[in-house]
Backbone:
């Protein structure tokens, strides 16, 4: 059985790590979770983002969700938002694409052009 | 929707859109009555009577990016296809309570899906909201409350990956314990 004692262990362990981090948010990632986003697979995309951020030890990026971004046929949609409010919108996302966005855009600062809304609309 | 956990994520999204601070989910499955039910109760801004009466009509929505809302109509049809129904009660300024039922053994009943994934995504995205989950099979129950966990964590964010992983396993165990042997798709 999972026990609350385990939770206490996790608490102690992570507390040390947290104290070593500096906590300014560098980017905000938002996953569209309205009905069509969910039906199109937004939940596994969100999980892939969380997992990959953890795997790469990225602590200055938050992942959240919003009810409504827009265009159904482009879902799942993921926005990567800079502190100044400018953003990149990725469309038709999959867990695999999410992993690439973390590696290339979030970690290395290179936007994955071929997944963006601009590239999709230019097709 | 492919399964009930995705429907659940979707209707909880409505509660979040209604600015709820606390969202209680009860999932019960009673083998004797052949009934599976999902109840979601929130303290969001609610709906007035007139709006409520027509809310399962897809052409009724307050969303702005699209003229139709499909969340509730889809849930209603998933319930009705499986011998159940959807009931919603709401009061402006107080909150909303929604109950969706299914015949457990009905051939068109959607599988439960990944309940823990639904809650872990919600908690990761909205740690400021209190999520409560109760699972019940008529004999035993399992209870989870995200703010209780927060209290125990005493300063460590609930959004830490290790905490989320623990939560996922914790809820998975609850699902197994309560619905294993009750719902076909859940291993006991
Ligand atoms: N828990 C709730 N509290 C307050 N209002 C609600 C709640 N659930 C639904 N509503 C109202 O009912 C409307 C219809 O909901 P529904 O889920 O069917 O569509 P939607 O959320 O508008 O769009 P979609 O689900 O397709 O993304 C919503 O726009 C909202 O005004
Ligand atoms: Mg909805």
Residues:
């Amino acid at each position: 059985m999972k026990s609350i004692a385990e939770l206490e262990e996790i608490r102690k362990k992570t507390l040390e790590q947290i104290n070593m981090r500096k906590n300014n948010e560098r980017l905000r990632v938002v996953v569209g979770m309205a009905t069509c986003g969910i039906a199109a697979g937004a939940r596994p995309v969100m999980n892939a983002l969380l997992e990959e951020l953890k795997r790469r030890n990225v602590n200055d990026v938050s992942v959240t969700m919003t009810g409504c971004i827009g265009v159904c046929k482009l879902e799942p949609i993921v926005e990567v938002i800079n502190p100044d409010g400018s953003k990149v919108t990725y469309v038709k996302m999959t867990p695999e694409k999410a992993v690439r966005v973390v590696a290339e855009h979030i970690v290395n600062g290179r936007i994955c052009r071929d997944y963006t809304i601009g590239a999709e609309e230019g097709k | 929707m492919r399964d009930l956990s995705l429907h659940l994520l979707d209707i909880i999204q409505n509660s979040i859109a209604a600015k709820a601070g606390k969202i209680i989910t009860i999932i019960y499955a009673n083998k004797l009555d052949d009934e599976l039910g999902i109840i979601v109760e929130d303290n969001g801004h609610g709906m007035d009577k007139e709006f409520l009466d027509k809310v399962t009509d897809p052409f009724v929505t307050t969303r702005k990016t699209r003229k139709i809302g499909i969340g509730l109509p889809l849930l209603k049809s998933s319930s009705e296809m499986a011998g159940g129904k959807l009931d919603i009660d709401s009061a402006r300024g107080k909150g909303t309570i929604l109950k969706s039922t299914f015949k457990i053994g009905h051939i068109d009943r959607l599988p439960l899906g990944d309940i823990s994934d639904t809650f872990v995504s919600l908690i990761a995205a909205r740690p400021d909201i209190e999520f409560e989950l109760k699972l019940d099979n008529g004999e035993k129950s399992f209870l989870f409350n995200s703010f209780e966990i927060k209290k125990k964590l005493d300063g460590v964010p609930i959004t830490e990956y290790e905490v989320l992983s623990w939560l996922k396993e914790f809820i998975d165990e609850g699902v197994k314990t309560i619905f294993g042997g009750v719902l076909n798709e859940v291993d006991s």
Chain A is about 45% helix and 15% strand. The interface with chain B takes residues 1-2, 4, 6-8, 10-11, 13-15, 18, 31, 33-36, 38-39, 43-44, 46-47, 50-51, 53-54, 62-65, 67-72 of chain A (CB under 8 Å).
